[in-house]
Amino acid sequence: MSTPNPTPSRPVGGHAIVYGGSMAGLVAAGVLSRLFERVTLVERDRFEDGPQPRKGVPQGMHIHGLLTRGMNILGDVFPGFREDLEAAGAQCLDMTGDHAWYMSGLWRPRLQSGVYLHAQSRPLLEWVTRKRLLALPNVRLLEGREVTGFLTSADHSRVTGLQVRAPGGGEEQTLEGELVVDASGRGSRTPQWLEALGYPRVEETRIHVDVVYSSRLVRMPPGFKPGWKMLNIAPELPRQRRLGTLVNIEGDRWLISMCGWLGDHPTLDDAGYLEFARSLGDPYLHDVLRHTEPLSPITVFRFSHNQRRHYERMPRFPEGLALVGDASCSFNPVYGQGMTTAALQAWLLGECLRQGQGGAAQRHRQRVGQLLEVPWSLATSGDLRFPEVEGRRAPTSGLLNWLGDRIHRLASHDEEALRVFVRVMHMLESPTVLFSPRMVLKALTARPDAAALKRRPEPISVPQSRAA
Ligand SMILES: Cc1cc2nc3c(=O)[nH]c(=O)nc-3n(C[C@H](O)[C@H](O)[C@H](O)COP(=O)(O)OP(=O)(O)OC[C@H]3O[C@@H](n4cnc5c(N)ncnc54)[C@H](O)[C@@H]3O)c2cc1C
To answer: What tens digit of pLDDT does each residue of 400-414 get?
Structure first.
């Protein structure tokens, strides 16, 4: 799907406005810069000239891996993006070659998959993207401005612009444009604003998971050469509910994020943090962590629920409006799909506009509805494994979970299954390929051999003076 969006010979419109200057808004504005004479990006925060955390993105201190599909779209929208990001220090990690990965009770084989995860701090990713966007001659940034409502045609059938003001008060300004894109994140006020204009309230599905992230920057001891750049201890749901990931990011630093479902989290002191790492499915992360030097306090983020707004189901929806990113759907972040799904929604917007501005808003919301089916079901089917999590379960969910567990286990010892698994995970293939007759047969019959059962990452060896 992410073939390059060609630039049409004539712009499809004069002025597009995107609000929310985080990943979804930056990619959307990049897509629209090829289609409109000018694009204005409105953001409530003021940006620093550098990779700094900011108030509007409180999740920014936690691990943010960019999947291959997301990187492909960013590279289409901003040619040379990958090179820029890597030059700024991001690590390009082969998903299985550079990854010590414990899943389904086994350490997965290490092989070159050709599927890459880009690892960097979230502020770095956003800064590099923002620089690329703001270098475009037809893009203007309006920062330190909060959007407070829509301007519409007299009959409210079309959104024609936005009301903006300084955060917390100040004089209202208006901005007019032929297209308005809401990229303001999961706190988006579009449901309320449309309702106030006489539209029905958008249906919303919430699945409460209370996933708590706790993250910290660390430095490895000198001479530490583990042979991997990412370490992941995944839980067997629902028997286990704790996850730990450690990844090499820019500046010779490592970022660790550990999290638990249903409110489970470590105490926020060194001893509690280490103890949580020890309690994961395998103690290897703990063994590594005790040799590291903390570079930051432990930061916490509480993700209460998956949230999907079904704009595709609304019987009426105004022209001139589109939503991208968490504003339409925000998933449990442990599956790492948020930014890639946001980029896909922005890319789809370009596709819909290329067919003409008339009806583009309707086409986009329908196609986004279809697009979200897979990432939504991937995220929520895992969460719904916990009996405590409320939500609708398909009558076949028990059987699918049973088979899914076997396929996960197969991917932990069978190279072919592992390659397919990472392609699905990076949104390069549909999950149906995991359920092909060949894969299912193998999942039901193949058993890990002795080498797979014994496989472990190299023991930690650091100079004696640093060992605890
Ligand atoms: C702990 C955690 C870890 C994650 N890890 C990953 C990962 O590994 N990989 C991945 O792909 N995704 C991950 N995600 C998801 C990812 O952060 C989001 O999906 C992604 O940032 C896209 O969000 P967004 O741009 O739609 O919204 P947000 O990032 O929430 O940004 C919204 C923006 O809108 C601005 N804004 C809000 N209201 C207004 C207004 N009224 N006017 C003007 N501006 C406004 C805000 O200041 C902000 O800049 C993670 C999320 C969390 C919580």
So the answer is: 999 999 999 999 999
